[in-house]
Amino acid sequence: MKAIKNAQVAKNIQAGFTLIELMIVVAIIGILAAVALPAYQNYTVKAKLGNVLKVTQPLKTAIATCAGESGGDLAKCNSTDNTELPSLAATKEIASTTITGAGIITVTLAADVGTNVSGATITMTPAAVTGNASALAWTNATSIVQADAPSAYETIMKNN
To answer: Most buried by CB count within 10 Å: which residue of 10, 97, 98, 131?
Structure first.
């Protein structure tokens, strides 16, 4: 008789989650995803821009070498007058690169880099360092609007 009562009590014990508990868990996951997704997207854009800036280092080195060999005359360091300057092939992040007069590098970003960043340009301008003809200081500029993509803008401008 006692065994029958224990069996009936065991049937009444809760064996899972209630609907309310499951809805609370889903709501918490939704809130976390809503916060995490924009932050993740910012990090991926910053990583892609960091890659773009690193990939252009050989171009900067070639322009510095050209400037040193031409006695500091940056006007000779462009892809039209100096065919020895390297060029970059298109990548996932870079649509095209050009080296124009005075060694100015212009990078056009690819279409899938990120929101408010895709298709933008980054311009890297060299200037001779006073007192050291073989050294160059680089200044970055971009067509990215700071208000639209602040983390992307900051990533580019902090590399001046």
So the answer is: 97
